[in-house]
Amino acid sequence: MARGLTLDSHSQLLFLMAGGLLIVGLAIVDSLECYACDSAENSECATRPGQQLEVEECSQANDECVISISAGLTRRGCLTRLYPNGYCAAPCERCNTSLCNRHVYPTDRLRCYQCSGAECIDVTSSPQYLLPCPVYKEGDRCYTNLYHLSNTMRGCEATNIPDSCPHVCLKCNYNGCNTEKTITESRCLQCTHNRLSPNPDCLRNQAESEDAQPRCSLDNTTVTHCVNRVMYGHRENCFTYQNTQTELVQRGCSTTMGFYSSGVVTQCHGEFCNANCQDIVCAACNSTADPGCRAGRNLPTEKCAAGTTACYSCEQDTFLRRGCADENFAPAGPGDSCQLCRDADSCNRYSVRSCYRCNAQDQDTDCAAMDLPSAMTTSNCSSPTELCVSTVVSRLDGIYTVRGCEGQVPECSANDPYCVRCNGSLCNYAPTLWRQTQVGLVTDPDNLPDNWWSLLQYWWSRKLR
Ligand SMILES: *[C@@H]1O[C@H](CO)[C@@H](O)[C@H](O)[C@H]1NC(C)=O
Ligand SMILES: *[C@@H]1O[C@H](CO)[C@@H](O)[C@H](O)[C@H]1NC(C)=O
Ligand SMILES: *[C@@H]1O[C@H](CO)[C@@H](O)[C@H](O)[C@H]1NC(C)=O
Ligand SMILES: *[C@@H]1O[C@H](CO)[C@@H](O)[C@H](O)[C@H]1NC(C)=O
Ligand SMILES: *[C@@H]1O[C@H](CO)[C@@H](O)[C@H](O)[C@H]1NC(C)=O
Q1: Which of 306, 335, 308, 305 is nearest to 320 (CA)?
Q2: Which PANTHER family match (predicted)?
């Protein structure tokens, strides 16, 4: 009995469930849902279907969802609500599953960048602005309208082309085509040089140009930059201004160029194009014809050939010459010691004396032998009459050769027997005695050279001090 009852209530339950499913199923079949909107009220109805659009439930059985366009406006909804007589004029799309009217229609509706303001100047990384056109029109075009330096408007011609568009307006006819950058930026070098505040980097590159670099140009890492902001279709330049009377040189961007009543302005177009080096004026003399040439006061000058960017001072024994280091310039020979300068006109007017500078204690093993003087470091002495010296000194860890200007080698004192002095630039190249002795010591300890004892005494006297 109990068992029969159980079966009975089971079958009742099953019957009830089946009936419920049937009702639910009928309800699903019955109520078609469609997106419902009108682009006259909400432009997203045309541009972003499916995003937060309202949904309606069609009231009639066997209804359809539609997307239709009339007079450029897009409408979505249940067919019988929008078109009670069931007729929807083309272009119109009908479908009969719930929410089937959610896509962009027609599927080839033109897409353009649509935005305005400063963020609209460059849209290459703003895909969120690329949308279907709100108003539909066959043969529509995208436009870009440039108002001024900080405002650009982009959109679809049929939707909202501005009245100002004939002026700076670009139109095009394929998806996403209105991407022209309306403002471009180009950089120039910006600097000022004048007599009271010299700026050598503004005149010419201070690094000696390598052979591979045919033309001298300013170094864009040591000179500051300025930026020309240029509207589409316009052109701005870089400029260089020079006034030889006032010794003023100015470089910069044409958008911020001042007014110059005299002097010469040259302009050019392109990134950092105003980088040309200024030609130089050099002191020109030699110590044979002009005794004042060495002291370097009130020297005659010459304007160098175009393209010259350095002046030289060369000294061979006691003969000194100065002039333009133009393309014909070369040292007179191996003994001719030359210094170049480029930081100002007549920069070669100062007195000159330089010496080989080294210390065998450093990595400079050639300091004692001087097999290759041309590879040796040189040093500018503090005075044009300073002597060059070399000597041998000892420290706790060994004996070394030292060379330099007299003032740089205090070990080279009056009672230093190893001190050798000479009067002339780069004259301190003689190999030192110690080097020969050292070789003898190492290779043949039984055969000590004559000066061995004195050197040992010298060494200990230094070491014990
Ligand atoms: C629904 O659409 C399908 C496919 O287009 C079609 O075969 C069917 O007849 C339509 N049904 C209704 C009720 O419109
Ligand atoms: C400087 O100029 C060189 C070549 O002219 C260029 O390659 C480089 O990018 C420039 N440097 C800067 C900071 O713009
Ligand atoms: C030195 O200068 C004088 C005058 O400019 C010139 O005549 C002479 O040739 C020069 N001497 C040398 C060796 O360059
Ligand atoms: C020595 O002086 C010349 C010119 O004045 C300069 O170009 C050069 O760099 C100086 N050398 C050193 C080692 O300072
Ligand atoms: C070095 O030579 C110059 C010119 O030849 C001379 O005037 C000067 O007196 C000499 N200096 C020394 C210390 O000998």
Answers
A1: 335
A2: GH09876P, GH09876P-RELATED
Nearest residue (CA) to ligand 1, atom 10: 96
What is the CA(323)–ligand 3 centre distance, in A?
11
Mutate which of 287, 385, 386, 412 for ligand 5? The one with the most ligand atoms within 8 Å of its CB, which is 385
Counting beta carbons within 10 angstroms of the beta carbon of residue 132, is it exposed (0 to 12), middle (13 to 18) or buried (19 or more)? buried
**Residue predicted with more confidence, 157 or 50:** 157
Q: Centre a 10 Å sphere on the Cβ of residue 127 and count the other Cβ atoms it contains.
A: 10
Ligand 1 mean position, distance from CA 96 (Å): 6
For residues 394 and 411, give the distance between their C-alpha atoms in angstroms, rounded to a whole number. 10
Could you tell me the distance, in angstroms and rounded to a whole number, from the CA of residue 286 to the centre of ligand 3?
6
Give yes or no: residues 368 and 448 share one domain: yes
Establish if 382 belongs to a structural domain. yes
Given a cut of 80, is residue 15 above it in pLDDT?
no
360 and 330 inside one domain: no
Ligand 5 atom with the shortest distance to the CA of 318: 5
Structure tokens given for 154: 């982009």
Q: Which of 81, 107, 133 is the last residue of a domain?
A: 107
| Tally of structural domains, the chain | 5
Q: Which residues, judged by CB distance below 6 Å to any ligand atom, belong to the binding site of ligand 1? A: 62, 64, 96
Could you tell me if 323 and 372 lie in one domain?
no
Please give all residues whose beta carbon lies within 6 A of any atom in ligand 5, as ranges: 318, 385, 387, 423
* The model scores a pTM over 0.70: no
Rounded to an integer, the average pLDDT of 89-114 is: 93
